[in-house]
Amino acid sequence: MLRQFHKMHGLGNDFVILDGRESPLAMTEALARHLADRREGIGCDQLILLEPSNTAELRMRIFNADGSEVESCGNASRCVVKLTGAGTIETAGGVIHGDVTGAEVEVSLIEPRFSWNEIPLAYAMPTDPVPMGWENLDRPYAVNVGNPHLVFFVEDLDDIDIEGLGPAIETDPTFPERINVNVAEVGDDGIRLKTFERGAGLTRACGTGACATAVAAIRARRLSSPVRVTMPGGTLVIAWEPGQPVTMRGDATHVFEGTIDL
Ligand SMILES: N[C@@H](CCC[C@H](N)C(=O)O)C(=O)O
């Protein structure tokens, strides 16, 4: 069965996007993993499947490169807004609102959540910060912006072996649904950030990670909104006021389209 796909990225966080709105596609963990494979498939950090929605203009399902289906993806939602023109997108993590503003795309995610059972954590404990540590990373802030994030603030981002520490933190039993791991350095110009993504590893940028990190910094009164978050792939501008959804603005790039035999 031949299917058309689009390859897009947001700041180097890359996606294969399949449109199942008119001809449905039964996605499995194994098929998602195969398509995401950079040697034997097309290659991406996340596979995105578009489907019809009863509550928004379309539904977006998100599969990490390891095949796991997850709730939200900030960079992919900007790409889907750019590709389809949709102003509302249903995800398992809530409805996302989007708007193209010149070369950039702005999306508004859900109102962030902070309770231990909303992250979720395995046990009742504080989340601002979580009283835990892993080697030279400790006392992270836990934030759910549709998907679960930990945010570690450090003095020097370049001192941290995030690829070495990421897997143990992501899969720690404290996080029953695993977790995305963000390491952030606050500076005069905003935040420098690296994210070890659940199910995908170190990526060049993570939109929900940038949102969770900016929200944690604003809550801790280290910065005020809007916040520039610079990742290896580029910069996003994140805005948030307590009690409101968090918004993100940045590039979304179409790379190519093609056909694959499934
Ligand atoms: N790259 C994404 C987040 C993708 C999902 C994440 N790895 C998870 O498992 O929750 C983004 O731009 O937000």
UniProtKB/TrEMBL annotation:
| Predominant location category | cytoplasm
Catalysed transformations (reactions):
(2S,6S)-2,6-diaminopimelate = meso-2,6-diaminopimelate
Q: Where does substrate bind?
A: N13, Q46, N64, G74, N75, N147, N180, E197, R198, G207, T208
SUPFAM superfamilies in the record: Diaminopimelate epimerase-like (SSF54506)
Name the UniProt key words of this record, in alphabetical order: Amino-acid biosynthesis, Cytoplasm, Isomerase, Lysine biosynthesis
Name the pathway it acts in.
Amino-acid biosynthesis; L-lysine biosynthesis via DAP pathway; DL-2,6-diaminopimelate from LL-2,6-diaminopimelate: step 1/1
Q: Which residues carry the site feature described as Could be important to modulate the pK values of the two catalytic cysteine residues?
A: H149, E197
Q: Which InterPro entries match?
A: DAP_epimerase_AS, DAP_epimerase_DapF
Q: Which residues form the active site?
A: C73, C206
Compartments where located:
Cytoplasm
Q: State whether it acts alone or in a complex, and with which partners, per the record.
A: Homodimer.
What is this protein for, i.e. what is its function?
Answer: Catalyzes the stereoinversion of LL-2,6-diaminopimelate (L,L-DAP) to meso-diaminopimelate (meso-DAP), a precursor of L-lysine and an essential component of the bacterial peptidoglycan.
Q: Which family does it belong to?
A: Belongs to the diaminopimelate epimerase family.
Name this protein carries in UniProt: Diaminopimelate epimerase
Species name for this entry?
Sphingomonas astaxanthinifaciens DSM 22298
